[in-house]
Design brief:
Layout (H helix, E strand, L loop, with lengths): L1 E12 L4 E11 L3 E5 L6 H9 L8 E9 L2 E2 L5 H4 L3 E4 L12 H11 L4 H14 L15 H13 L5 E5 L7 H17 L2 E6 L10 E6 L2 E3 L3
Parallel strand pairs: 3-8, 3-9, 6-7, 7-8
Antiparallel strand pairs: 1-2, 1-4, 4-5, 9-10
Helix pairs in contact: 3-4, 3-5, 5-6
């Protein structure tokens, strides 16, 4: 069953050329789909379209459709989109907002008015799953690159989306931090999440069910 359906997606920034040009693809429930491409190929733009950030936040020419878990992403309220598909930014510092790991995980749930006892249960369970329990009171800003990525992945997953989008998840990480992120991706797939990653170096290729290549605004089956 397809959980993502993208049809004829095109986008151009104001007074600029098309960054995405007629993209169509699907992803099945529980699939790991990797989009590979060079810098400037439109990978981050694609992430933003999948999650509903675009076309909302910038003046763009947008056409086509993006449906995730039955939700019309470009037209649904952003808070509704976030309950079905979540984006983990390339730079975790752009996503972290709290001064303690446990508060970071609780933040989104508090905004959704989840009862405090349920927040505590979900925060404790998610920290245990991702090996974060021992740093519950640590400041995320002072963690290693890999640990920061774990926190951002955990803080998006805790909201219950069925699709996780990873924007260049290995950028700037050393070997130890990469291993932390790879293990986190493995756990996401074991949970049954659909994982969409955009990458430059194909670090997640061993976990991918499919790899598509983004070039000149279009998708290709080969590099």
């Amino acid at each position: 069953m397809n959980i993502i359906e993208v049809k004829d997606l095109s986008l151009a920034y104001e007074d600029g050329p098309r960054v995405l040009d007629g993209l169509s693809f699907t992803a099945e429930e529980g699939e790991a789909l990797v989009f590979a491409g060079l810098s400037g190929s439109g990978k981050t733009t694609l992430c933003s379209c999948l999650c509903g950030i675009l076309p909302r936040t910038e003046a763009v020419a947008f056409s086509g459709s993006v449906t995730v878990d039955g939700v019309d992403i470009p037209h649904a309220p952003l808070h509704e989109c976030a309950q079905h598909i979540a984006l983990v930014f390339q730079n975790p510092d752009d996503q972290l907002v709290c001064t303690a790991v446990e508060d970071e995980l609780a933040f989104g749930l508090e905004n959704l008015c989840v009862p405090p006892e349920e927040i505590r249960r979900r925060v404790d369970g998610t920290m245990a799953e991702f090996g974060l329990s021992g740093m519950a009171l640590s400041d995320p800003a002072k963690l290693s690159g890999g640990q920061k990525k774990l926190v951002t992945i955990a803080s998006t997953l805790i909201l219950g989306p069925r699709v996780i989008v990873l924007d260049e998840p290995m950028t700037g990480l050393d070997a130890e931090s990469r291993e932390l992120v790879l293990n986190a991706v493995k756990r996401l797939l074991e949970r049954g999440c659909t994982v969409v990653a955009v990458e430059h170096d194909l670090s997640l290729a061993p976990y991918a069910d499919r790899i598509l290549y983004l070039r000149d605004g279009k998708l290709h089956d080969k590099p």
